[in-house]
Amino acid sequence: MSPRAPDARRVAGIVLAAGSSTRMGRNKLLLEIGGESLVRRAVRLAGEADLDPVILVTGRFREAVEREVRDLACVPVFNPDHAAGIQTSAAAGVAAVAGDAEAAVVMLADMPFVTGRMVRTLVARYRETNAPLVVSTYGGEVSAPPILYDRTLFDEVALMKQGCGREVVRRHRERAVHVDWPAGRLRDLDRPDEYESARRELADA
Questions:
Q1: Residue range 129-177, pLDDT digits in tens
Q2: What are phi and psi of 171, to 5 degrees?
């Protein structure tokens, strides 16, 4: 993690890794792609993008996931309500962000086509524009994580009824900055066939 400039606002990272992997049939967070597990890759990228601290929200597979990243710089936070939906994990994450962080980037652990450059770009746009919301948009159409929220929006994130931020994005659309990425980056891994396809693709990259 490189030193921040004196005037750089601190941005935390929130990696959501509390799902039950029901459709995968096994703990997908420990599945390997490119020589490392999905959760380890997400936490590593967050750290390399200078997010500080990196908060890892866990759920059903708490012990196994925490063991997997025990040598990485992150703060595990257990979400006891993880079965109620991903919005509860986002709420647990923002609640754990220290008071000296001005914003947080919410990431999903099962999106292996998200890169460190993407995360760094969101942070750079936040610092350049002072926008309260910096949103990843895929193929010019779909808004999805990673998404950066200014601290002024943390209460709204905590009160979301469903999903991973669409309510907040919709409410603040006119104030948001959008960063467009290729549609192919918008891929999470829920089923065995999706994992096998991603594993082959990234192995050949």
A1: 999 999 999 998 889 999 999 999 999 999 988 776 788 988 998 999 9
A2: -70, -30
Q: Does the domain spanning 11-204 belong to CATH 3.90.550.10? A: yes
Strands 54-58 and 36-37: unpaired
In the chain, where are the structural domains located?
Answer: 11-204
CA-to-CA distance for 156 and 168, rounded, in angstroms?
7
Q: Tokens in use for 56?
A: 């890892």
Q: Which residues touch 199 (CB under 8 Å, ≥6 apart)?
A: 31, 32, 33
